[in-house]
Amino acid sequence: MTQVLLPAAIDNYAETYTTAESEALAQLNRETHLKIELPVMLSGKLQGTLLQMISCMIKPRCVLEIGTYTGYSAICLAKGLAQGGHLHTIDINEELQDMCFRYFCKAGLENNITQHIGKAAEIIPNINEQFDLVFIDADKQNYHLYYDMVFDKVPVGGFILADNVLYNGEVVWPDAEQSKNAKAMHAYNEKIKADKRVEHILLPVRDGLMLVRKIEN
Ligand SMILES: C[S@@+](CC[C@H](N)C(=O)[O-])C[C@H]1O[C@@H](n2cnc3c(N)ncnc32)[C@H](O)[C@@H]1O
What we know:
By secondary structure, this protein is α/β, with parallel strands linked by helices. The protein has helices spanning 8-16, 23-35, 44-58, 72-78, 97-106, 120-123, 143-151, 180-194; strands spanning 62-66, 86-91, 113-117, 133-136, 159-163, 198-203, 209-214.
């Protein structure tokens, strides 16, 4: 499960020299840690700020997020939307829907974000949009499937970002010692490396982010 791969002192130092969370994100971070199972899933300040920066650089008209959880990364990504832009976010867990909406309102982004509840593989084909940016952060076994499902919905020049691609560092362990999810992440990284239609960089931030830019159809 998601860990910080950097030594704690370096991670704290990086957070210290990163812009403070907005009030809405700080409250959401706190409430998630106090009340919700598996708060380690939340992107957090360092990764969240990076997501926001990436989105601000791209200024996407439309974003797809796969894996909402409590809405932290959705808010970060939505902050970079072009004027009138929209973010679609999908999660299988309906229990967190109201909490997410409460924080989307606190962040002033409720009109820019649509929540979809259900299995991502069933919902993606029904969102009839082109996505300038896709963030994959859900069940690890299906990353390869989500990549294939969104590829034609991303224009040339668009981006596909995936979280947890280092899977707590397990991707470099001997094959026999890797968990099923680490193997899935390694397979995803290999798939990206072999795909000549994209440029890519694996950023060793938090649990590893694979940033892909589509260069041909
Ligand atoms: C790591 S969390 C997302 C964290 C969030 N993006 C953030 O950074 O704050 C993964 C989420 O994926 C959701 N999920 C798992 N399997 C899914 C599926 N098949 N379809 C849609 N969502 C799924 C889980 O319910 C969970 O909320």
